[in-house]
Amino acid sequence: MKLQIDNLDGLGLRDYTAVIDAAHTPRVTRKLNQPSELRFSLLLGTDLVAPRRGSRVLLGRTNGQDVFTGYVTADPEYEFLGWGQQGPLYRLTIVARSDDVLFDEKRLPARSPFVARSAGDALQQLTQEVIGGAFDTSAVQDLDVLPAYAPDPQLSWSKHAAAIARRARASFRVANGAMSFAPLGSATYPLDESDPGFSPQGLSLQPVNSVVNDVTVVGDIEPQDFVRDYFVGDGLTSRFYLSQTPYTKYSTIIFGDEYGGATLDPTRWSVVDPGGVVGVASGKLQIAGGNGSDGATTVNFVENVELGAAWILQHGDVVFNAVSSGILGGLYLGPVSQANCLAGFQITPSGTASQIQALVSGVATGAAMATVASHHYLLTTRIYSQEIYRLQQTFHGAAYPAGGGAGGAQVSANVRLVLEVHDVDPANPATMVTASTVLYDGVISNAPGFCTYSLVNSPALQCSIAFTRMIQAQDTEVRSALPGESYRTRLVGPLSSGGECNIYSGPSLTFFSQHVPALNELIEVRYRGRGRAMARVTNPASIAAEQRGIDDGVRAAVRHVKLPPARTSADCENAALVIVTDSTATGCTGKYQTWSDFLPGGALDIFPGDALSVNVASRHAAFQAIVKGVAITANDLAGEHCLYDIQFEHAVSEDVAFEFDAQTITTFETNSQLMTAFLDLPLIPSDRVGATTLPPLTNAAITDISSTTASLDAGIAPITGGGGIEVRWSDFGWGPNNDQNLAGRFTTQTFTLPRLAKAQDYYLRQYDGSTPPKYSRFSAALHIDYPY
């Protein structure tokens, strides 16, 4: 074997093999999804240059096979040994880390979260932004799509690479200028006692009692009930109290670009500009024409936009410098073109000026607004989705490997889109706080989950854009209707941004003084309630197999999942399914020590993430294992014989698939609710995961209110063959055997119920005719607060 070091002195790689300290031979330590490390000592006099921090280190075999490549991470530690023939003699203790160290020494850019990207694509993009195209990433596989991943710049590249790899059940490796990213177990080697090179004394196994056949998974706080609160204005009241605490994230600016640099930020924008008409000057994005073609000159956001929860896309403070033609703030399905535009602002010539009109599903819609020279136009798209998340999390295990995980399904939803223009005349300060003009307010049924955001599609735009912001807003939709008129969306947000009302703690809806609801103005507030995501899944076959005497065979566990995040109860079901499927038998952890000449299956090398097919009948061991760590000690450099210490875990190990949070939850709004939630969790057999609930009544509404009754519409017709709509006065006790708080069961879509108080609640779920009947997972919660 050869140890070569480049001391960055212009002399290139030099051979240091002859001065390796035989008492401290090189030792390479590899761990799953962590940088590798090489420790070695040199005996140096004055004939060779001492390595220093940053020196390049290669340890390899004479056939060209690399055992380690990396860089010295700190100046060597010197130990004086005495005087030699040529002067003082020192032992230098040196530590080097694999090529990943180059990534970890860089600061990650502050960027927007990855959205609906494959794990491999996200890893490549993160690498590209850290160190450019210096590494070969051709061996990086795509693997599963991540719903979202936010790379925190406070963490190192390798921490993020490990988190991405865990979510995809994969391993990454960086060596000799190349990166690989592949599923765990892509390379599998037999560890079989019938192999002539097998070393029985080198194998140690530690059984782990990992049988779990009844698992409760606890996840994040999730959106639950589909709530509609109904109020009526009296011309004076500006504050209305909500019936539930909304599931809402704090209003967060995903990005805000003020265009203060000399060019557009490549971590945010992707520019196609064949005519050279896009530039940044005077703190503004300048668009000076195009080539006349739709979709040929574009400025696109680098990430997908998820049409879930609530979003405010402030496309900018736009000033038109001349007659223009194009699309601003477009959401596209597929390539950027007018035909693929789900929603955007179409700019077309209008005499010597231009006009702004809503563009929906590729068609100009509604009234157009004529532009005025020197006026500023603040273009905003508001998104209100019935669902917070549009893609389930994917969970992996031995039975659900990379590319075939549990979950990952698309979540259907209707999405309301509101396109508004705030016309500001710099000569009239009062226009800064006037209400925006709504060009479009409508619902896209069964909307796509993700789309492309193109700020600029310029066949011939002549304008400047002062800022662009993407804001994850409070997930609350407010609409109102004056007597005899249709409902309109009331804009939620700060007054300075054209908002009419806002949501505050309490929880309450507060209208600004300029926009207080008029006498008898009807107000409808839609949002999602909140609660803890949980699910309980059992493995009936394993329970039956474990029964012995008075032991009923249940092996229960509660797991608080941290990674991958279980954001919803459906995610918790899938995570629990992976656990109970894999944990049906006791597993093993183990170590195997052998010489490099006798590696399992005749392998030339073993890396963390490889699989071992263990077959040692004399120890009743037959299972698949994942290598977690490898330590290589180069005891015989001349003969190229290395001692390998291989650590492995059973492939079904939870530690391979998940990261758990040890902290227990002591409150779930209140302790009594936490206990109730645990007791009420239905037991879902592993073969019924994803098939035990019905869709929620997302469109349930109150259609008429009197002093004594309320007319309800479930939004859909009841399921035929024994199904119906169950209504309760409070949100518990669902099922055919509890009539305590039952308001009624109905086989029609519309029905009337008594109104018992000024403030009245109705909770609805649909059920079918199966035995036992299936119900919606969450309720539609309808709340009235009307005067008699």
Structural write-up:
There is one protein chain. This protein is 8% helix and 48% strand. By secondary structure, it is mainly beta. The longest helix is centred in the last third of the chain and has 14 residues, at 569-582. It is flat. It contains seven helices and 55 strands. Strand 42 and strand 43 (621-636) form a beta hairpin. 42% of the residues are buried. Helix 2 runs antiparallel to helix 3. It has a 15-stranded antiparallel β-sheet that branches. Strands 1, 2, 3, 4, 5, 6, 7, 8, 14, 15, 41, 42, 43 and 44 form a 14-stranded mixed β-sheet that branches. It has five domains: 2-98, Baseplate protein-like domain - beta roll fold (Phage tail proteins - horseshoe like beta roll fold), CATH 2.30.300; 103-183, Phage tail protein beta-alpha-beta fold (3-Layer(bab) Sandwich); 188-210 and 586-657, Elongation Factor Tu (Ef-tu), domain 3 (Beta Barrel); 251-473, Jelly Rolls (Sandwich); 692-785, Immunoglobulin-like (Sandwich).
